């Protein structure tokens, strides 16, 4: 804020520029003409511009610039939009060592400095200048229509319509949008949404109308993601357009509001600051984290930024850190599958694996399994990267492969697993088996009286035996330690509010149900309609389809070197294993999802 009149007057009196008589004349001139004290001083010739600037420079400990004495390059001056320059009373007047020299009426306005740095992606060196000189310079810079300005105007004609709004207009829109989204966020009051580092959470949602526009944009983007119950936020730059999309129920959808293209660098810069990344590095991928609380419920954003040909693209994975409500019932298990899985979990030792592609909910299943079997009398240890859910009574360790343990060893899953065996555990969960060492240690731990849970990347449950053998785990060790393998996929479910009975199911679907041996005599087939609740899509929410391989004597008997997946699968199906396709078709018959959704997920 500008120096108060009394504050400036005292400084002028102390400096000897004014005496009591001159001060009264200045007051009279201000009252009569409506001028500010600085303009009155200059007009009455009681002080020169240079004297006043030197005084302000000393008082505020900042550099000064007398704009009336220099020629400002229009290209430099027009770095800021005219509306923003006039509103904040500031204008760039030069460049030095890659930094922008910025003349400001009040260089103490740190919010304005930060806004410019984040929005336009360069560092600022503030200088104090007189308001009259700033106004004159703005008029001069923007008054003459240079060829460069005409070129810019031609370019702006090609910019999508949504980007052609003023900064002030967008500030108002962003504020209204933030308020609207906060009002529609049923899970929390706006004042209770806190964002910051995990260790030191700060409240950034108490935003007033004077806050930087970029801050309002980030807040609005985060709030809409939480309102939609999205799993990811995608901030993607394209030619002349910045797109924000959310992954909701496994599908991407565009944000309900559009962000002007001019904010692309500032938005990424703000995300980098919140994620503790290097704001100046734009050539390499970076990873970071943002912690959030909504009415005490913790979230964590796992952030990745990569450089693209159109600028930097960011993806924020939203992790619900609260593990209080993790249950296997949320995964849509059929009753017999759930009972057999729980039976395997109840055993005191053995290896239990969950498999599937990235994003199939493996981590959720493992943590829900731990929540189902945890006992205050048991010691449970987990090694994760990252820790996605917090479970009470479970000791959770986040591995860091970038951390060296000496002698060429890293703090990875295998190192954590070795350390766990010296912690006297009953149950161990390791995030993923991805190499021979981790596979060997997991099997050995399962053989020596520990229950070991982990994930592995295969397409189906029966492929796990071959995958472990490829890693170098002996087949006899697999047969003696592996208890069960659960394969799963996440599928979209029909909107419960608008789904309608399907009175004429297709011949193709009925034929497939017959081929897979799924009984549909009492089926309740449903079809998509669409309503306001599901955004006219007809699908809302997700559930899982499963394939549970129980290691019985028949399957253990064929676990020999060179065993083929087809042989394992044939024996497993004969032993009663329900395939992913069969599990999915059963849920189609129950009216939970569509035939097309199962075909896309299970094939």
Would you identify the CATH architecture of the largest domain? 3-Layer(aba) Sandwich
CATH topology of the largest domain: Rossmann fold
What is the distance, rounded to the nearest whole angstrom, between the alpha carbons of the first and last residues?
A: 64 Å
CATH class group of the largest domain: Alpha Beta
β-sheet strand percentage: 15-25%
Query: How does the overall form come out from the CA principal axes?
Result: elongated
Order of strands in the sheet with most strands: 6-5-10-11-12-7-8-9
Helix/strand class: alpha/beta
Task: Estimate the helix proportion, in percent.
Answer: 25-40%
Largest sheet features: 8 strands, antiparallel
Number of domains: 3
- Number of β-strand runs: 23
Instruction: State the CATH superfamily name of the largest domain.
Output: P-loop containing nucleotide triphosphate hydrolases
- Compute the number of helices: 23
Q: Are there runs of 5+ residues with pLDDT below 50, and where?
A: 1-5, 144-172, 177-193, 195-211
